[in-house]
Amino acid sequence: MKLTTQIAKQFRDVYFGGNWTASSLKEHLADTSWQQATTKVYSFNTIATLVFHMNYYVGVVMEVLWGNPLNASDKYSFDHPPILSREDWERLLDKTWREAESFAILIEQLQESKLWEDFSENKYGNCYRNICGIIEHIHYHLGQIVLIKKIILQSGGN
What we know:
By secondary structure, the chain is mostly helical. The protein has a single domain, classed as Four Helix Bundle (Hemerythrin (Met), subunit A). The chain has seven helices and no strands. Helix 4 packs antiparallel against helix 7. It starts with a helix and ends with a helix.
């Protein structure tokens, strides 16, 4: 199996299931209502905000891999449109799943030599580091989502 195929599999697995941790974003969001997704717990970000945030960086890395300049800012990575209905929540999830699959396909199609090239600029490391960083980022926030959802459910949130 090519390295890029394996990396794409790891990316898909954290989104759609089948990874070593037996925990995926799609699994934990499948029965999450829009009300739960927008419930503020302590000073944490909401589930919806975390989903948007993760997807923001997938989009950023995808653009660079397509050959476009790096055009992103951490300050925008949490600025999502309001989620005021089930339809708004489903729209965010649909976008997330579509872009995740597009990103996985892009990774699969990369020449392995591209992995070792600079990501936009040398100061950001190589493409491999940034793609693996995205996977780590998803796992990190997935853990937060799981905990936030447990708190919401234990406190009687629907």
